[in-house]
Amino acid sequence: MKVKTTSLAIALALTTVAGGTWAAAKDEPIQALQAAKVTNPAKVELGKKLFFDPRLSKSGFISCNSCHNLSMGGSDNLKTSIGHNWQQGPINAPTVLNSSLAVAQFWDGRAPDLKAQAGGPIANPGEMAFTHELAVDVLQSIPGYVAEFKSVYGSARIDIDKVTDAIAAFEETLVTPNSPFDKWLMGDEKALNARELAGYKLFKDSGCVACHNGPAVGGTSFQKMGIVEPYKAKSPAEGRVAVTGKDEDRFKFKVPTLRNVELTYPYFHDGEAATLEQAVDVMGRLQLGRKYSGEEVGQIVAFLKTLTGDQPLFTVPLLPPSSNSTPRPTPFD
Ligand code: HEC
Ligand code: HEC
User: Fold this and answer.
1) pLDDT score of 4 more than 80
2) Atom of ligand 1 nearest to the CA of 126
């Protein structure tokens, strides 16, 4: 393989350390996911209700789950999302599964954590199009919520801080352990077949792990999209530079998690790669200067599909009914 850039050289150096012989599981650049430990089940339950409650939107129709559908890998499987009034979103919705493991939230990392992130969509005119004040007014007018906030936070006064805190607590439970790859990492040699293993070896030895590493197989850094070859995007999103203002951060995006990637199509920040095969081919060429054969792409894809873990399973939350004084939704303005 030809080393073409400095960052690539670093990438390859990292891979050499991790690659080569089949190391003991604990030495792999990817670690097994641990099931979430729930310390405050009542808060998680409240956060789950809020995640599913469309009354946090102006239309009364869009919930977090509309765009991060937990029946579909925590994503909407659309190129870019549909927001209030059927507005076309500017960017692909990343999965909320395992997002608690990421260094920061959003493609450009503008929110430091899940709590800071959760206020964003409610007040985003292109998403739920509400305001924090109105969302809190709605919740405060619903006796079932008032009682639940009181029991979780010790006070019947609801505010946006508590709302985002509860949503974040729920999201922290959305981890997906026990994938075939995790079983292999823990020593179950039969958990992967020969083709999947060949795919992992290729993934590791060709340098994908320089960016896609850690328990989430991503989410640990911001990296340029298009290192060896530029990425031709139609979307105006410029990535990390929007946060740091530094020119060197232009077109750097948070490396997405590859956990459950089989479920979270289409791919990339603009959703332009419809299939996993396409995404792997683009990554090989643009990030590593490597053109994989059809067979090699197939092997890597077979490996990536072993990253699908246990999806969060729970009873659909029953939301407390609105009261006569609850402000009514305004879906068409
Ligand atoms: C209209 C669709 C839509 C709705 C509704 C929505 N989101 Fe998102 N969400 C997105 C999009 C698009 C992004 C990526 C935006 C970006 O990176 O600039 C995103 C990003 C995120 C992320 C960051 C994930 C990551 O890997 O960076 C989290 C977490 C998240 N949303 C949670 C929520 C929560 C909680 C709610 C409800 C309060 C919500 N979303 C409502 C579309 C939506
Ligand atoms: C230099 C860092 C880097 C390397 C090396 C790299 N990736 Fe990526 N990968 C990224 C970034 C950054 C993105 C997001 C790009 C975007 O959305 O514009 C990404 C996105 C992806 C996606 C799409 C995920 C999604 O949810 O949208 C897949 C699949 C993927 N990479 C697989 C690979 C494979 C396979 C390799 C090795 C051939 C690889 N990557 C090598 C940084 C890297």
Assistant:
1) no
2) 1
Cα 250 from Cα 271, distance rounded (Å): 19
Question: How much is the pTM?
Answer: 0.93
| Ligand 1 touching residue 191 (CB < 6 A) | no
Q: Ligand 1 in contact with 167 (CB < 6 A)?
A: yes
Cβ burial of 304 (10 Å; 0-12, 13-18, 19+) is buried
The runs of H, that is alpha helices, within the chain are 6-18, 41-52, 64-67, 114-123, 132-140, 143-153, 160-171, 180-185, 194-205, 241-244, 276-288, 294-304
Alpha carbon distances (Å) from 282 to 205, 285, 289: 17, 5, 10
CB 223 within 8 A of CB 103: no
Q: Tell how far the Cα of 280 is from the centroid of ligand 2, in angstroms.
A: 8
User: Of 8-22, 85-99, 175-189, 250-264, where does mean pLDDT reach its minimum?
Assistant: 8-22
Fold classification of 6-30+183-307 is Cytochrome Bc1 Complex; Chain D, domain 2 (1.10.760)
Query: Closest ligand 2 atom, CA of 292?
Result: 38
Class of domain 41-171 as given by CATH: mainly alpha
Domain boundaries, the chain: 6-30+183-307, 41-171
Q: Which amino acid is at 285?
A: R
